[in-house]
Structures are given as structure tokens and as C-alpha cells.
Write a structure and sequence with these properties.
Chain B: It catalyses: (S)-dihydroorotate + NAD(+) = orotate + NADH + H(+); (S)-dihydroorotate + A = orotate + AH2. Chain B: Belongs to the dihydroorotate dehydrogenase family. Type 1 subfamily. Chain B: Catalyzes the conversion of dihydroorotate to orotate with NAD(+) as electron acceptor. The complex is a heterodimer. By secondary structure, chain A is α/β, with parallel strands linked by helices. Helix content of chain A is 15%, strand content 36%. Chain A has 5 helices and 16 strands. The radius of gyration of chain A is 17 Å and the shape is globular. Chain B has a single domain, classed as TIM Barrel, CATH 3.20.20. In chain B, helix 7 packs parallel to helix 8 (248-257). Classes of the chains: A alpha/beta, B alpha/beta. The structure holds flavin-adenine dinucleotide, flavin mononucleotide and FE2/S2 (inorganic) cluster. Flavin-adenine dinucleotide is lined by residues 37, 47, 49, 51-54, 65-68, 70-74, 112, 115, 208-211, 242 of chain A.
């Protein structure tokens, strides 16, 4: 994990309020695990805290992130031009493990939970795994990356208003996707809860929690463990996660 | 030339900068970024007798130039801290200030007694000011008599110097300061966070699960400066100043107000290298200002202007 001023090399609007940014720098070469994140410092004294954004793709010294403009931090990110720099700390956290015994993987992403699954899909595909992908959006106009994912496997889209693919939530497409050995999911908490219920226990979930430090020191991002271990009853989303085994933490 | 070394009761510091309690865990995370031996001291996370799970999440919210936290003193308890956290820090050449919290006087006494045995703890810091835990800690911070009693009780069981960390959430901070000095406190830490709240206007609900939290960061600095300016002229024990330190200039301001060392909290979250960078910047700034030693600055602003402190309450 390093801190570096990465250089913006491109910025692209993919959908309303959704942007893809490419950044370049030496520290990117160590961002090898999908599901890990970078922590970006945008303002001087406001916004004060860093912003966690998932690693969406890495090619040599180039990092891609995809983010949705929510508030001040992401607005400032959207204003960056080619050649500007972004203070990035990363890679942080524990990402998605790739298990040798599982041949078919089902990836389930909702909204801005989708980006980290891209880097995962790519690595699973490169390792010769069969990959199926369910991507959930609110409506057709908000869709992104669906084409890009189709390089790695079959893509199932759901939209809440039915404007594309299956109408409803990602869980409504799980039956359609058929058999799988392991699942990986990232998205808002209610979605993770529903997926955990529908997809069983052989899988991994990636959690979004509000963070202070991003490195494990402040205890802002803790989650309770379902089965309390003897000397530890909680985990830190920033350091022990954001990826956890399905069923491990209380959602 | 060393312009930076300072000596406070129990704490022989290479420089006046330490990370503030609760903002640095027990050091492991930041040790991945730099050698902790460069620090003047380390104030470790609060210890209570029992394991504390803390408050529900969300526990942090950002505000204008500050942040609110309602961690709720989550910590693994004194036994675990003694067995697993403090020994790990032994490999660093840095004095530790052990932060202590509790519900009752007995809690503080128990933790103080036990943690004083750790070979690398050099001083105690009584947190009588955490705004995030209901009906505890804070009551000691707002009542001069109770604060003094607690200080006496801890002094009786430990031979280590005792710093009392004062709450800014009171009307008469100088009164509490004078009472704990009288009771034998060796130093003061100030300030802890200011009670605050943030509401999500989309839902109408406070963002923090605990509703209220403690405000820290640059937003609280003027409050800290005023309180240190006031208290340092009333007491003769040294003050570790904290509250919104983000630059070497901020540190100079704390010294001029009356601090003898400083602690850096929230800035560590903005930048994991905050402390080592501040130490370097401070040295450079002192050279520029032609100050031969940092301690010359302590209280430089005293009596230059007599604020009407009573009317501001
Ligand atoms: C591990 C992790 C990975 C993430 N990856 C992505 C990603 O790839 N793409 C993307 O668009 N978003 C991602 N997010 C969410 C993103 O961090 C927030 O949308 C962003 O911090 C909002 O900042 P803001 O200043 O624009 O919004 P504001 O609402 O102004 O932010 C205010 C505060 O709330 C926090 N906050 C707000 N929303 C969230 C949230 N959903 N999760 C955590 N903290 C939040 C901010 O960090 C900040 O401290 C991720 C979050 C986490 C925890
Ligand atoms: C996340 C967080 C946790 C804290 N935990 C403690 C604690 O356990 N004990 C304590 O005495 N102070 C605690 N504090 C207060 C800080 O030590 C410090 O007094 C305060 O944050 C002001 O300094 P700053 O503005 O530099 O952060 C905490 C502060 C924050 C932000
Ligand atoms: S964000 Fe600080 S511990 Fe996770």
C-alpha cells in the first residue's frame, strides 16, 4: 500500500452521474487483487476525509475507477481534467479470493457495486473459469459496462422498471443464470442481504461502510461477526474487508 | 541542532508531536507507513476494564472542515491490550501515553493500576471527556469535584504521571483544570471532541446511529486555542494541546496559546503520513522563524491581550 499522486489520463461519462476515470502511476502496479479499493484525497480541509473507490481495472501502471457523483468529493473528482493529479492511497483492504476448486462463478453487482466485479471477471476468465454475470440497474439509461462484461461470460441484466432485461432486482435473475459453484457480490446492503438469502453460503460479499481512516485505525467501519470468535466479535470493513465470506458478518 | 525535543512529566520526547488517542489505534496500521520511532510519543486508544463493542454504525459523518465520530470507546479491554497490543509496540523507541476510560471511579483505578505495569507505558491520560458514551466519563469531566476525586484515586494507585484529558463541553473548563491540578494531576490534555450532530436532509434523520457525535478537525481549532490560552494561564502544569492540527503553523499557534506538546488526531485519517510530515515541516518553520527551541514559544501570547472570558460564556 502506497500513497501517490496519480495522473489523470482520461475521464469519460458512461451514464447519468457515472464516470470512468483512468489514472496512471507506479503504485498502480501493486493493485493486483480485485475487490480492493483506493482512498482518494480530494479537498484540502474540506472535504476532510478520503473517499473510498473500488479498483475497477488495472493494466500495468494504469488504474480504472468508475464512480457515481454523490456529493462534494465525487463532484470534485468529476471536475478533474487530463493531466491533473489525484492523491491516492492504495491498494487497501482484502479483495475477492479466487478458489481453485470452484469452476463456475456467478458475479452479482448492483449500481456502483459493479465496478470491482469487472477486474474480478477478467481474472476469473484468464484463469479459465466459467463466468456468469448479473448486473442490476434502476433503469436502462443508467446501464454501464454491460458490453464490456460480455467478453468474460454471459451477462444477465435486471432493471427495476423493466426497461431492459429482467424486471426487478438482481435476485430475480439468479434462477435464470442457472448453476454455479461460487458467487461474488457487491452492492447496497439490502441487495447483499437478499443475495445472501437467495444464493447460499459459498460466496463472497463486498461491503460499503462509511470510513474514517480506511486503514484500520479509527474503528469507524466495523461490522459484527455472526459467530463471535473468542477474542474478536467484529471486523473492520476497510482492513479485514471490504470482502467477506457470505454469512460471516451481520448485514 | 535539535529545536524540537521537549520533556514533559514521564514523556521524554524527541519532538513535541504525538498521535492523539483513538486516532491511531495501537499503532500497527500506521507502522506499515513509517517507523513509529520518529514520533515524539504515542497516545494509544482508550482502554476500559471490559471489552467494548462501541456504538452502532454509521459512526462517522463529515462536516465543514471537520468530522463527527461516535465510535463509543470500542476497545478489546485491558487484559487483551496488555497481552496483545502494548507488547507489540515495545520494539519502537517511543514513549506511550495510555488513555483510560470507564464508567466508575473503580474502573479508572483498575485500568490505571494494571496498565502502569506495562514496561513501555510512560504516563496515563484520563479520558474524562468522551461525549459518546452515555452517563459515563463525561460526568467526571463536567464536575470539578468529581474530576479531582478521580485524579486523586488514580494518583494513589500509580506512580506514573497522570494527564487529565479535559472536556470542552463544559461552561468552566478552567475550573475543572484548576481542580485536577490541585488534586495532583501532572499535566492536562485538551481538548477532546465537541458534541455535535449532522442531519441527512433527504431523510430528516441524524446521520450517526448514535445521533450525536464528537466534532474534531480544523473546525474545532479556534475553540481549542481559546481554551488552552485560558487554562494555561490558570495552571502551572503542562498542557498537551490538540484539536484540528493540520499544519506546522497550527502547532506554533498551540504553543503560543500555552501548549508544551501537541497531539494530532483527525489529520492522520486525511493523510497517514500527517505526523512525520508535520515533524519535518515544524523543524523547517522554526528555522525560518529563527526560533532556537520550540519550548520558547509556549505561552508567547499570554497577557498580550486580556480577553473578557467571563462575558463569553
Ligand atoms: C470499499 C468501498 C468501495 C467503494 N467503491 C465505489 C466505487 O467503485 N464507485 C462509486 O461510485 N462509489 C464507491 N463507493 C462509495 C463512495 O465511497 C461514496 O459514494 C463516496 O465516498 C461519496 O462521497 P461524496 O463526497 O461524493 O458524497 P457525500 O455524500 O458528500 O459524502 C459524505 C460522507 O459520506 C461518505 N459516504 C457517502 N456515501 C458512502 C457510501 N456509499 N459508502 C461509504 N461512504 C460513503 C463519504 O465518504 C463521506 O465521508 C465505495 C465505498 C466503499 C466503502
Ligand atoms: C475517531 C476518533 C476516536 C477518538 N477516540 C478517543 C479515545 O478513545 N480517547 C480519547 O481520549 N480521545 C479520543 N478522541 C479524541 C481525540 O484524541 C482528539 O482529542 C480530538 O479528535 C481532537 O483532535 P483532532 O481535531 O486533531 O482530531 C477520538 C477522536 C476521533 C476522531
Ligand atoms: S475506516 Fe478507520 S477502521 Fe476502517
Amino acid at each position: 500500500m502506497k500513497k501517490e499522486n496519480l495522473t489523470v489520463i482520461s475521464q469519460e461519462n458512461l451514464a447519468p452521474r457515472i464516470y470512468r476515470m483512468k489514472l496512471k502511476g507506479e503504485s498502480v502496479r501493486s493493485m493486483l487483487t480485485p475487490g480492493q479499493f483506493v482512498h482518494l484525497k480530494l479537498g484540502g480541509r474540506h472535504p476532510l476525509l478520503r473517499r473510498p473507490i473500488s479498483i475497477c481495472d488495472v493494466e500495468e501502471d494504469q488504474l480504472s475507477i468508475i464512480y457515481r457523483v454523490e456529493g462534494q468529493g465525487t463532484s470534485m473528482l468529476a471536475e478533474k481534467k487530463d493531466g491533473d493529479t489525484v492523491d491516492a492511497l492504495g491498494p487497501l483492504g482484502e479483495g475477492f479470493p479466487i478458489t481453485p476448486s470452484d469452476d463456475t462463478a456467478l458475479l452479482i453487482g448492483g449500481g456502483v457495486g459493479i465496478p470491482p466485479l469487472y477486474y474480478l471477471a477478467k481474472q476469473l476468465y484468464d484463469k479459465g473459469k466459467r463466468v456468469k454475470i448479473i448486473l442490476g440497474f434502476r433503469r436502462q439509461e443508467e446501464m454501464f459496462l454491460t458490453e464490456a462484461f460480455s467478453r468474460f461470460g454471459e451477462v444477465f441484466v435486471t432493471t427495476e422498471n423493466g426497461s431492459c432485461g429482467t424486471r426487478g432486482f438482481v435476485t430475480d435473475a439468479i434462477a435464470k443464470a442457472g448453476e454455479f459453484d461460487v458467487f461474488y457480490t457487491c452492492g447496497p446492503k439490502p441487495m447483499l442481504r437478499a443475495v445472501e438469502k437467495a444464493a447460499g453460503t459459498n460466496g463472497y460479499i463486498s461491503l460499503e461502510e462509511r470510513m474514517g481512516c480506511g486503514v484500520g485505525a479509527c474503528l469507524a467501519c466495523v461490522c459484527d461477526l455472526k459467530e463471535a470468535e473468542t477474542d474478536k466479535s467484529y471486523v473492520k470493513a476497510c482492513k479485514d474487508g471490504p470482502v467477506f465470506q457470505a454469512g460471516e458478518v451481520v448485514l | 541542532m535539535n529545536r524540537l525535543n521537549v520533556e514533559l512529566p514521564g514523556l521524554k520526547m524527541k519532538n513535541p508531536v504525538m498521535p492523539a488517542s483513538g486516532c491511531f489505534g495501537f499503532g500497527q496500521e500506521y507502522a506499515e507507513f513509517y517507523d513509529l520511532s520518529v514520533l515524539g510519543a504515542v497516545a494509544v486508544k482508550a482502554a476500559t476494564p471490559e471489552t467494548r463493542r462501541g456504538n452502532d454504525t454509521p459512526r462517522v459523518a463529515e462536516t465543514e472542515s471537520g468530522m463527527l465520530n461516535a465510535i463509543g470507546l470500542q476497545n478489546p479491554g485491558i487484559d487483551h491490550i496488555l497481552a496483545h497490543e502494548l507488547p507489540w509496540l515495545e520494539k519502537y523507541d517511543v514513549p506511550l501515553l495510555a488513555n483510560i476510560a470507564g464508567k466508575t471511579k473503580e474502573d479508572y483505578v483498575l485500568v490505571a493500576e494494571r496498565i502502569s505495569d506495562a514496561t513501555n507505558v510512560h504516563a496515563l491520560e484520563l479520558n474524562i471527556s468522551c461525549p459518546n458514551v452515555k452517563e459515563e466519563g463525561l460526568q467526571f469531566g463536567s464536575d470539578p469535584q468529581m474530576a479531582a476525586e478521580l485524579t486523586r484515586a488514580v494518583k494513589a494507585v500509580s506512580s506514573l504521571p497522570v494527564y487529565v484529558k479535559l472536556s470542552p463541553n463544559v461552561t468552566d473548563i478552567a475550573g475543572v483544570a484548576a481542580a485536577v491540578e490541585e488534586a495532583g494531576a501532572d499535566g492536562l490534555s485538551m481538548i477532546n471532541t465537541l458534541m455535535g450532530m449532522k442531519i441527512d436532509i433527504r431523510t430528516g434523520n441524524p446521520i450517526l446511529a448514535n445521533k450525536t457525535g464528537g466534532l474534531s478537525g480544523p473546525a474545532v481549532k479556534p475553540v481549542a486555542i481559546r481554551m488552552i490560552y485560558e487554562v494555561s494561564q490558570r495552571v502551572s502544569i503542562p498542557i498537551i494541546g490538540m484539536g484540528g492540527i493540520y499544519s506546522a503553523e497550527d502547532i506554533i499557534e498551540f504553543f503560543m496559546a500555552g501548549a508544551s506538546a501537541v497531539a494530532v488526531g483527525t489529520a492522520n485519517f486525511s493523510d497517514p503520513f500527517a505526523c512525520p510530515d508535520l515533524i519535518k515541516d515544524l523543524d523547517r518553520l522554526l528555522e525560518e522563524m529563527e526560533v532556537s527551541h520550540i519550548s520558547e514559544l509556549t505561552g508567547r501570547s499570554w497577557n498580550k491581550w486580556e480577553p473578557n472570558l467571563s462575558s463569553s460564556r
